[in-house]
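Hello again, I could really use a second opinion on something today. I've been staring at a protein lately and its backbone has me curious. You're getting the sequence in one-letter code plus the fold written as tokens. I'd be grateful if you could look everything over and explain what you see. No rush at all, and the record is pasted right below:
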Amino acid sequence: MSSGLASWIAIVGIALTGVVTRCSFLMLGERVRLPPLLEQALRHAPAAALGAIVAPALLLTGGHVDFAPGNHRLLAALVAAAAIWWTRSILWTIVAGLAVFTALRLWS
């Protein structure tokens, strides 16, 4: 099998998987109920997906885990976490995180 054909098969397979999984909830509706334990687990899926996106962006530098003081993204995220805990304000969290990140990038 040529690499071009394999690529097209993969693209079509991924597209069909996406369409079938999304349409199943619309087409089946209330006729099919998920088990309560699975429904409870799926409530945590958005937070898990966000963590899977954010964690590598904060912790990886050049493909390696970086906890060094020179990791400006991680330091700014820690300040932002402290800001949300202290103020409970999204606006001040964003301001604090961006201010620290910008200051670290400009003056170090």
In short: The chain has five helices and two strands.
